[in-house]
Every structure is written in structure tokens, then in C-alpha cells.
Amino acid sequence: MAAPIYNPVIPCVHPIPGGMYPGRMIRVQGSTPPGAQRFAINFQCGPNTDPRDDIALHLNFRFVEMCVVRNHLTAMNWGVEDTNGGMPLNRGDSFEALILCEPHSLKVALNGIHFCEFPHRVPFQRISHLTVDGDVMIQLIGFEGAQPPPQQMYMSEPPAYGAYGAPPPAYGAPGYGAPQGYAPQPGVQYAQGMPPQGMAPGYGGPQPQYVQGPQRRGMGTGAAVGMGVGALAAGGLAGYALGGGFSSSNDSPSEPPPDTYEPPSRDEEIMPEIDDDDDWLEG
User: Fold this and answer.
1) Cis peptide before 51 (omega within 30 of 0)
2) Please, which residues bridge with residue 93 across strands?
3) Are residue 119 and residue 221 in the same domain, yes or no?
4) Disordered: where is this region (predicted)?
5) How far apart are CA 232 and CA 211, in angstroms?
6) Which of 59, 161, 268, 269 could anchor a disulfide with 41, C-beta 3.0 to 4.6 Å?
């Protein structure tokens, strides 16, 4: 973990050791004076401020307008502002901001409560510097989350997003602890991409248990045909074979030993007994 920065002079520009990647979290602790108007935290794609390098995330805390503006800057042109969520900070108070990088967005928590999620408009791989300016005093800037292995792969382009709606509902109690989902994730592998929606790892009930029954032997032709039809309908030809329909030898009737077998003579053949009554002909 990179060493934190204590009490930087404002405005400040500091490189982010190792850059940003999924699982990386930046912790900013500070306070504002009673007459604060605004201050900004920027995740920039370079150290320059005049002219300004591209900004992947611009957090502008505006106490007069009572909102926190989120935006991005490319080629000195601002994008569409997002101001939903109001202003959770008060003038003259201390605060802590957590910014967590995820594969498709940057999540922001203020004083231990989730505040917003900002989809990547600029690839997070370009982020290299953190800048702070305005009416604010910063006590600490921390860099959390281990550097990922070099063989990790990330999406080169973020997915397309529509209009930005309201931020997700807040969770967690007020304070300075990281809310659920904000803990840095060192060593997480992302080469396989994100799981499909509704299929997050670690979810789902116990796997069903399948018990193999004993193999049937000695079935007659009718039973074998009945089982074969059911097996073909349910599982195809393989299921039919496993069900015993293609038994090679076990289903044939047993024969007596050759030395004891004597075919009956014609005199010993049992003829069917015919009833003298003609009731069987009625019908």
C-alpha cells in the first residue's frame, strides 16, 4: 500500500501510485471553513491544471447551490452534469470521502454512506493524478488496494449508459467507516469479465443431488420398450441407452444347460382345452 499524504497545501496535485483499477480505493479526509463556497476533487488523466488535462471524475461540492456536481472533462470540454443527491456535507464540518474504482463505474461514499455511482465516461486506466482545490483543508489522502497482477485484463471501453437516474439508496450508518461494498479488493481477478446480471459469484442455493438407482436386469420386451420410449422422450438416445434399452446380454431369457435340455415330443405337447360351450363365441 502506498504511503498516505498528510496535510497537503491546497490546491494540490498528486500522482496516484499505480493508477486506478477495479478494487482501488482513495480515501480523502478533510474539513471546510464556516464560510466555504465550494471545493473540488478531481481524478485527472495528467498533472496539468492550466490548461487542464482530461478529468475522468470531477466532484464539485457547492454549498451555495446545495449540490455535488459530477462530471468529466475531455479536450477542455465538459460533459453533462449530474447533480442528483443534494448536499450531504455541512460548512465548517469534517468529512471523509471514499472513491472506489469498479470495472464499470466509480462509487462515492461520504461519511460512511453511499452517495453516488458515476459510470466511466473516460477509461479508468487513464487516471493518473488526484487534484484538490477550493475552500477546503485536507488532513489525509490515502491509497488503498494492492496493485493487480500485470496479466490482468480490463475492458478497453466502458459499456453504453443512458440518462443518469437517481443515485442508489443510501446504506450504512453515518460515520467514517467504509460502507458495505467499499472495502478495497486486492488481488481480485477480472480477466474473465463480469458475471451476467443476476449471476453474481457466491449466490444461489445448494446444488441438487442426483441419486443413481440400481440398473434393471432381466426386463422383458414390453418393459424395455416402455422404458426406451420414456428415456428417448426425456433424455434422447443417450438416456435410452443408460436406461437399459440397449442391453447387450442381460435382458435375454436364460436357457437351461445343453446337457439337461430335452425338447418335448409331439405326444407330450399340451393342447389347449376347448370348452364345449359356445359362450366364448358370443360377443
Assistant:
1) yes
2) none
3) no
4) 241-283
5) 20
6) 59
Instruction: Specify if 206 maps to a domain.
Output: no
Indicate the pairing of strand 67-74 with strand 77-78.
antiparallel
Identify the H or E element spanning 237: helix 221-242
Length of the chain: 283
pLDDT digits (tens, 9 = 90+) for 133-152: 999 999 999 999 877 666 55
Instruction: State the CATH number of the domain containing residue 59.
Output: 2.60.120.200
Local structure of 234: helix, strand or coil? helix
Cell match 460515520: residue?
A: 175
Beta bridge partners of 29: 96, 140
User: Quick one: 140 and 227 in the same domain?
Assistant: no
Give how far the C-alpha of residue 80 lies from the chain's centroid of Cα atoms, to the nearest Å: 28
- Please tell me whether residues 35 and 121 are part of one structural domain: yes
Distance CA 23, CA 21 (A): 6
Detail the DSSP E strand segments found in the chain.
5-6, 12-15, 25-31, 38-44, 55-62, 67-74, 77-78, 94-101, 105-110, 113-119, 129-134, 137-144
d(CA 244, CA 250): 9
Range of the domain at 232: 216-251
Same domain, yes or no: 136 and 220: no
Peptide bond into 201 cis (omega under 30): no
Residues 6+ apart with CB under 8 A from 159: 104, 119
Decide: 150 and 24 in contact? Cβ < 8 Å.
no
What backbone torsions phi and psi does residue 19 show, to the nearest 5 degrees?
A: 75, -165
pTM beyond cutoff 0.70: no
Within the chain, what is the greatest distance between any pair of CA atoms? 125
